[in-house]
Amino acid sequence: MKSNLDLTKVKETLTSVVSSPGKVTVVGSLNVDLTARVEEFPAPGETVPAADLTYVPGGKSSNQAVAASKSGANVAMVGAVGHDAYGSFVQRSLEDAGVDTSKVVARDLPTGTALITVNAAGENTIVYSAGANRSVSRADMQAAADVLQSADVVAVGFESPASMVATAIDVARSASDANTETSANVDQNNQPRNHRNNGGEARGTRRSPQIILNYSPIIDVNPGRLIGVDIVVVNEVELRALGERYGFAQLPTQGRGGLANVAGSKIDEHVGAKPEDAPTVRDSASSMAKEDGADENGLFTTATRLVAAMGLRGLIVTLGPEGCFVVESEDSAESGDVNPTSDADRSDRVNPTALTTNGVYVQGYPVDAVDSTGCGDCFMGTVAASIASGRNLLDSAGLATFVASRAATKQGAQSSYSSADELADQLKHDQANQQTRS
């Protein structure tokens, strides 16, 4: 089912995020990006002059934290920088955006650094040194347990080591042990109740945070490390690679229009299910697949099967200026519940015989784009902020689509992210233009 970007709904969602801000804790990378612009890349052993050299705060996680904070959430950052000027610069940038950096530790190591060279054709080369980012330990995570366990959403990604991501999930999920269930939160069979998360009041019943994973970059990781993840956000290339990692997507590297069909039999081998037991598709998703050709190119099928194979509540595939694609497990979509259950209650979510899915394609919002740097991070941070405030996955994806599109109209990453007030003004302006055209 296609969903045009409804600016009235986007405005409503933004208002909700601002008026009922949730708590987001972002765990991961803090970098400085050094960029030199040259006419041509140097050959080995060659020295070439650069037109200019700039340095800006970066790191996918740091970008996401800034985007979430500017969207209206209360944000804390967990990570490490070096005892150097760049570390102070990166940390100050976060603080200027309203992010709590009390859980960012400083180490006798260089701050994570990306050395970027851009030629006259706009091509780039990047050399990345993780530096202090790789020093974050389990002890650091334990020291940050308060902001991890009190968060409405914990956002993680693989620009950090998989072990760091797994530890963050483990510490955050242990909130359910710290917050003992009361009789108000269990039914007569001592099973956790499903809670709708549509506002601040409902958030008070949660036992542990919602975990959102930006599976980027794609790395080899033991699926056992990802137990506890509720929502995954990927771009189209990452979706294809992730499907191949799980052994059921054989997709070529060309653009979306040329993607091949997913090899359906391999997922059944992976999860030990018969072909006829694969997840069924609800009417809205199947009609969307026929309408947009998603079933023909394997995009929708891959996303659907990943939700089942990974035991997710939802998955968002970003498609750049074309928008995004949202797949939810049926239990999450129908109940409106975006609160994670305990790990024990998640066992049926990794069995595709127990899952059906619901999918919607959200069209992109047209803008005159000048720079897409950091737009994916902007999308991820905005989704985290929206879900933390109690909005459902589809509303959150719609808001993030609009916010990321606005970021593409400015140069840079963090510097291109608009504040909630700026977004509200832009929405008012765009709605007025729509009414004039109609």
Describe it:
The protein is α/β, with parallel strands linked by helices and 438 residues long. It has a domain at 7-31 and 60-107 and 133-180 and 207-249 and 294-335 and 356-436: UDP-N-acetylmuramoyl-L-alanine:D-glutamate ligase, CATH 3.40.1190. It has 17 helices and 15 strands. Strands 1, 2, 5, 6, 9, 10, 11, 12, 13, 14 and 15 form an eleven-stranded mixed β-sheet that branches. A four-stranded mixed β-sheet has the order 4-3-7-8. Strand 7 and strand 8 form a beta hairpin. Helix 9 packs across helix 13 (299-310). The longest helix has 18 residues, at 420-437. The two termini are 24 Å apart. The relative contact order is 0.16. K(+) binds at residues 371, 373, 407, 410, 412, 416. This is Ribokinase. It is found in: Cytoplasm. Residues 176-207, 329-352, 414-438 are annotated as: Disordered.
Layout: helices, strands, pairs:
Blueprint: E1 2-3, H1 7-19, E2 23-27, E3 31-37, E4 52-58, H2 60-71, E5 74-82, H3 85-96, E6 100-107, E7 112-118, E8 124-129, H4 138-143, H5 145-149, E9 153-157, H6 162-173, H7 175-178, H8 200-203, E10 210-214, E11 231-235, H9 236-245, H10 264-271, E12 280-281, H11 283-292, H12 294-297, H13 299-310, E13 314-318, E14 323-329, H14 330-335, E15 356-363, H15 375-388, H16 393-407, H17 420-437
Parallel strand pairs: 1-15, 2-5, 2-9, 3-7, 5-6, 9-10, 10-11, 11-13, 12-15
Antiparallel strand pairs: 3-4, 7-8, 13-14, 14-15
